[in-house]
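User: Hello! I'm new to structural biology and keep hearing that structure can be predicted from sequence alone. Could you demonstrate with Xylanolytic transcriptional activator regulatory domain-containing protein? Please show me the input and the output so I can see what each looks like.

Assistant: Of course. The first part below is the input, the amino acid sequence of Xylanolytic transcriptional activator regulatory domain-containing protein. The second part is the output, the predicted structure written as tokens.
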Amino acid sequence: ARLALIENQLKEVLEASASQPVKSQQPPVQQPVAGPFSPSQVFETPSPEPQWLSNIVAAAGQSPVLMSGWDTTTPSDWVAQPEPMVLPPLEDVLPLVNIYFTRFNIVMPLFHQGSFMTMLSDWYSHVIHRTRPAWAAINIVLAIAHRACITSEKDFATDGEKSAAYLRNAQTVVNELVTREEDLVGLQVLLGMSLLFLGTKNPKPASVLLGTTIRLAHRMGLHDQDRSNGLPEHEAVQRARIFWVAYYLDKDVSLNQKMPSFQVDADIDLPLPDLDPADNVSIMYSTDSTIKFNYFRSRTALSHIQGKIYDLLYSTRSKKASPEDRVQRREQLNHMLEQWRLQIPEQFQMANVASSMSPTNAVHMVNMYSTYMLCLVHAHGIYTFDMDETCWFKEMRQSMTAC
């Protein structure tokens, strides 16, 4: 009887279904959901801007942009959709390019100035040269130039927003750059983006981009000096410089985030940057021009020590070392850091930074010494030092105050 009842109920359901009209199987259309930022709020400018900037800002403002307070959580937040290629007039671009090469590229030689200026001239002179990678490279230079102009909260309201707009433009070309091996532009743009992301509250995208950049650099053979044989000298030099920029950003992020670096030192067959390069790139002079110092080479050497600190004290294998072994490792690292510091001329030591060089160079030196100070803290622990009595900390504090 129970089986008969179930059969009758099933029959009624089937008959009811057959009597109903067939409905569309298409899924409902989802309405767009507003993002966490309003473009008008993110890019609200305090004063009227030229039309070209309004066009750039409008294009970049279609989705959340990278600002210092933006919390990036997923890759889709920082890989943008393609936008029209828009650039300001050349007469507005050239002053910013000059700022980039005189304030930033002089210590971090990401671009060869002659090659970049040729690319810039071609962009504005010939439509055929208006490629998306070249457009992204110009945007990165403009973004870094605006970032270099920020010295106060007031500057951030203008230069910070413009920098974010240019960065957003460059982000739209990421998919084309990660596999670009025919020239150095892809690497240069990816490294420039990494630098800009590192200046935000959430530098996680920089780590992802650096990993991609290191892999691309290896595929192009930048880590191997033999792969540059036969190339024009300026191109071989630039290949090496780009590799070392990637190297020291990688080691810096690795130690600060306590994560393994992407670049293994054993896979490098490349000498450190030239101590006295022919083009004087990365060379700093004292105010009286009697003493010179190669910032880029010194910063690269410090990055090598950063990698050693992670390997000896923070890697998974190092955590199994005995207390006695860890003490010896700290002493070894302390010796390496002291030898590094002693190779810097007296005029460029921490206590003399503010008085012996230009304000622009002093800022870069303070940044490098900040990294040095963090290396000491990572090697020994912050509670190892009496901060009020430690000589190097006093010098660092005085230099930062003077700058």
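User: So the tokens describe the shape?

Assistant: Right, they're a compact way of writing down the 3D structure. Reading them back into a model, for example: The chain is about 60% helix and 0% strand.
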